[in-house]
């Protein structure tokens, strides 16, 4: 808490104070029998090179710091709320909403409000959200109502920027009745995503934030729970459960970049930047190498991140003052290159910068987009030799399906890897995948179900037990060992035949032998 202004009216002692419902006016009962009224002015908003100040109840001043140009904006009614982001100033008065473009301050778009009691304005690149009275309304910057998501029993009076988040395709909202739940809506239709079930966490959620870049199918949500642990989760299920991954602890405030999927936060008195949080789904061992940290003691106790625009982060300290800090611009450029599929330019930039962080981000992005050639270069640059060798082995696999499966396996998604191979009808490869991962019972189950390579599973199982100087105790393996003869020569011949079949299938398939590598390994 801090003091914005001090007034000493000549009215005697003030015995009682009451704020208006919109928080812009305050009334006080005074000792001399008068009632005093006050209005909040001098509120300030910043975005890139523009500064907007509420100079009077119904007037704003806009200043362009580049050329010192000043514009005066006047309104018919008093200003209640305002927000300045993404090239637009959105202002709500007691009756109307004004939408200004930073390219033209003279002709705003104006439309009437449903109730005129706006308590929150959130903006993203394509549209903005108003919390007006008891409802939420999503508008385009042309003033068109897009959707109005509904939550049973929703209390809009307690919604704020920490409990509601907006991106181009998704609206996220924390439930107040059960704070372990996060409701997710499609922005364009206002309907709940997927099967309508909210994202459930094990304990109460404190703050949520949606990332802003990339396609809707890759949308992520970051949230901080009551223990101050930071998690990241996919927004769209794609037929499976949402998987929340912990990427930080003791996080007090967070914000996504307005352009690329870079996350920053104050973590245990350190200013931390997660340059590619999605690495948690690709190669979690790489996560520490994609993080930048610096001392945050200058921000004092309980700071709040106000904005994250480009590579500049604005933080409000506990005394109310604003502090600006810059992050490295290079990871954001890498994000842009990958979005445009400019892999060669990304590699050249990393070689020029010579930072472990940028190489680690590029490695994870390459795995995500299945560009194994770039991944090999990036992993080699950060000394991950074992992963370089594994990537080389993936590139040498005979079919597209095998390579895709082993990329999933590289990221720790074993079930997805097995599903890809089985869907392609590569039964032996699925069995071998389970053998390599020591999932013996699953390997035997597949072999018995498809009536093939039972002897292969038994042979590898026996070799594994012999290496450990152990005897077989599993009843199923003992049962099948009685009726199956293990002949390593026959097994090796069968395996070689399977690999030949896979190579032939790959060469005569729809991709063809000449385009196989470039199509399957490039995004």
Give a written overview of the molecule.
The protein is of the alpha+beta class and 523 residues long. Among the domains are: 1-40, no CATH class; 57-148, Thrombin, subunit H; 420-523, no CATH class. 29% of the residues lie in helices and 31% in strands. The strands form eight sheets. Strands 4-5-6-7 form a four-stranded antiparallel sheet, with no helix packed on it. A four-stranded antiparallel sheet has the order 8-9-10-11, with no helix packed on it. A four-stranded antiparallel sheet has the order 12-13-14-15, with no helix packed on it. The radius of gyration is 29 Å and the shape is elongated. The two termini are 50 Å apart.
Keywords:
single chain, alpha+beta, Thrombin, subunit H, four-stranded antiparallel sheet, 14 helices, 31% strand, disordered C terminus, Intraflagellar transport protein 80 homolog, TPR_IFT80_172_dom, WD repeat, WD40_repeat_dom_sf, repeat
Secondary structure elements and their pairing?
Layout: E1 14-19, E2 25-30, E3 35-39, E4 44-47, E5 50-56, E6 59-64, E7 69-74, E8 79-85, E9 88-93, E10 96-101, E11 104-112, E12 118-123, E13 127-132, E14 135-140, E15 145-147, E16 164-166, E17 170-174, E18 181-186, E19 199-200, E20 205-210, E21 220-225, E22 230-234, E23 244-248, E24 251-256, E25 263-267, E26 270-274, H1 279-282, E27 291-295, E28 304-309, E29 312-316, E30 322-326, H2 330-339, H3 343-353, H4 356-368, H5 372-381, H6 385-395, H7 400-410, H8 414-423, H9 427-436, H10 440-449, H11 454-467, H12 475-483, H13 488-508, H14 516-521
Antiparallel strand pairs: 1-2, 2-3, 4-5, 5-6, 6-7, 8-9, 9-10, 10-11, 12-13, 13-14, 14-15, 16-17, 17-18, 18-19, 20-21, 21-22, 22-23, 24-25, 25-26, 26-27, 28-29, 29-30
Helix pairs in contact: 2-3, 2-4, 4-5, 5-6, 6-7, 7-8, 8-9, 9-10, 10-11
């Amino acid at each position: 808490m801090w003091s914005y202004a001090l007034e000493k009216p000549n009215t005697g002692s003030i015995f009682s104070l009451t704020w208006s419902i919109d928080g812009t006016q305050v009334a006080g009962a005074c000792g001399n029998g008068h009632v005093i009224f006050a209005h909040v002015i001098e509120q300030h908003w910043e975005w890139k090179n523009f500064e907007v100040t509420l100079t009077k109840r119904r007037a704003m001043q806009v200043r362009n710091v580049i050329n010192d140009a000043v514009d005066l904006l006047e309104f018919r009614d008093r200003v209640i709320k305002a927000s300045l982001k993404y090239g637009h100033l959105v202002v709500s008065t007691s009756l109307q909403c004004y939408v200004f473009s930073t390219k033209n301050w003279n002709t705003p778009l104006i439309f009437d409000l449903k109730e005129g009691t706006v308590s929150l304005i959130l903006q993203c690149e394509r549209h903005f959200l108003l919390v007006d009275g008891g409802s939420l309304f999503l508008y385009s910057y042309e003033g068109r109502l897009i959707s109005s998501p509904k939550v049973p029993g929703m209390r809009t009076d307690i919604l704020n920027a920490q409990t509601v988040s907006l991106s181009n395709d998704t609206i996220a909202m924390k439930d107040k009745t059960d704070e372990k739940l996060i409701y997710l809506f499609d922005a364009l239709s206002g309907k709940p995503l997927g099967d309508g079930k909210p994202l459930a966490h094990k304990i109460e959620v404190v703050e949520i934030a949606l990332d802003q870049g990339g396609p809707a199918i890759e949308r992520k949500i970051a949230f901080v729970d009551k223990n101050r642990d930071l998690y990241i989760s996919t927004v769209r299920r794609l037929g499976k459960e949402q998987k929340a991954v912990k990427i930080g602890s003791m996080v007090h405030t967070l914000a996504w970049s307005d352009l690329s999927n870079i996350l920053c936060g104050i973590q245990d008195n350190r200013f931390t930047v997660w340059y590619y949080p999605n690495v948690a789904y690709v190669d979690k061992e790489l996560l520490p190498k994609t993080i930048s940290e610096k001392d945050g003691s200058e921000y004092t106790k309980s700071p709040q991140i106000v904005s994250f625009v480009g590579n500049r982060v604005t933080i409000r300290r506990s005394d109310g003052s604003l502090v600006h800090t810059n992050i490295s611009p290079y990871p954001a450029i890498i994000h842009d290159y990958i979005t445009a599929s400019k892999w060669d330019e990304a590699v050249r930039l990393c070689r020029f910068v010579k930072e472990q962080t940028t190489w680690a981000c590029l490695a994870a992005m390459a795995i995500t987009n299945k560009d194994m050639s770039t991944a090999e270069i990036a992993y080699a640059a950060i000394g991950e030799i074992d992963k370089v060798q594994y990537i080389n082995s993936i590139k040498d696999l005979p079919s597209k399906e095998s390579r895709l499966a082993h990329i999933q396996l590289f990221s720790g998604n074993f079930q997805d890897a097995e599903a890809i191979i089985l869907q392609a009808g590569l039964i032996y490869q699925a069995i071998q995948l389970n053998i390599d991962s020591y999932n013996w019972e699953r390997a035997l189950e597949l072999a018995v179900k498809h009536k093939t390579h039972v002897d292969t599973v038994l042979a590898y199982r026996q070799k594994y037990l012999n290496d450990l100087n152990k005897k077989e105790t599993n009843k199923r393996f003992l049962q099948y060992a009685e009726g199956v003869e293990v002949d390593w020569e026959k097994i090796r011949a069968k395996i070689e035949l399977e690999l030949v079949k896979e190579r032939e299938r790959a060469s005569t398939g729809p991709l063809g032998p000449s385009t196989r590598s470039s199509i399957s390994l490039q995004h």
